[in-house]
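Collaborator request, handled under Task 6.
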Amino acid sequence: MATSVASRNGADSVDVVVVGSGPNGLAAAITVAKAGKSVVVLEANDTIGGAARSAELTEPGFVHDLGSAIHPMVKASPFFAGIADALVEHGLGWIDPPAGAAHPLDAGRAAIAWKDLERTVDGLGTDGVRYRRYYTPWIENLDALTDLALRPLLRVPKHPISSARFGATSALPATTTARRVWKDDPARALFIGHAAHSILPLTAPFTSTFGVLLGSLVHSAGWGFPRGGAQSLVDAMAGVLRSLGGEIRTGHPVTTLGDLPPSSATIFSLGPTQLESIVGNRFPASYRTKLTNWRYGPGAFKIDYALDEPIPWAHADVAQAGTVHLGGTADDITQAEAEVAAGKHSDRPFVLLAQHTLFDPTRAPDGKHTAWAYCHVPNGSTVDQTEAIELQIERFAPGFRDVIRARHTTSTHVLEEANMNLVGGDISGGSHTGSQLFARPMPQTNPFDTADDTIFLGSASTTPGAAVHGMAGMGAAERCLQTVFS
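Structure tokens returned to the collaborator:
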């Protein structure tokens, strides 16, 4: 059993240091503090939040999310369920639009994933019955689904039967599932749009995983977001942490272990390559090589808009969705994502768009609106994709450019400058190709362990991967408490 470092090294020491104040870093710190241990979070930037920050990027009064904008995993996350009441006490408000996602098609058509499953079924025509049959088992067993998706792989699953079914279902390429299960464009496109969050070729094995999980969450936990911006979520998490006695130090970059205060353990909410650079020779050479072999995936090119009016969608119900998937048919999106995977820039990219102010007027001046949009690009891309993105929006919302008041573009390099974890603009903390989909950061018994038994990794580069769920941070903290303080 480790002796508390505070008792060994004086009042300036803490039990645990957490590096990084994004949702995973704060989740790790809250988990440590709830266990009665002292903890300090170190953040290189002057503002906490990592990829979950907000700012007035275009004009005063228009609040834009710098990174993540829609958070389907929050209500499904066991970590956030454990602090839900505390977050509300510290100012968090939550918004669930009537539709989680909309998928416009040409000729004014659209597939709408309403939170109400039956309303979705009714809108999909003859494919509606197939849609209900496909998703109902997962919706009714959401605990089993999230246990499989958000917990480490190498363990005995809580729900073995569901686990076996999930393995068989999710192993298929998304394109295969879309063709086998549905007959018409709307339902196929809706599924492919969910699956394209994988940032993989949609013909790749296991891309159905994303279609299963995200499609199920639409009709259960919902695809919601924090009132006032993503910053509101991390600010509430910071309030919870401080109420438990935790400390946050901003403007405190960590480039070597010498930048850390004395502690019994350290949890890094960083990527494997950043960890290797900081820790250096504290790790054996063979382990350092494994960390530097981590593969990064495609990046993102992002645009934030200030709008004089809402986006004029050709299909009116698209305005009922917080998230809009733009790209056309399943085949269109499959081609666009294949081009990015091949290192090319698509002329007709798959665009993910969020329209917060239709449901949250606090983010813009009276009568004005915002939009948040991005497309996938090759890692480290320097190509401006503004024209390609706006042509896709205009394709399904004629007259969109007429309502633009101001725009702010963010390249892959700017994303990385703002957050060192987003290497080459990779918003997933590492490619989902090969073993990196399930064994993050590498195949090992516990995903949060490192070669040093006092250093742990808990970030988007570890299980369960990207998204705002806090589970990587919680998992790393639980592992730390189990091994260092037990």
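The cover message to the collaborator said: "The longest helix spans residues 230-243. Residues 5-93+225-293+429-484 form a domain with the FAD/NAD(P)-binding domain fold (CATH 3.50.50.60). Please let us know whether this matches your experimental observations."
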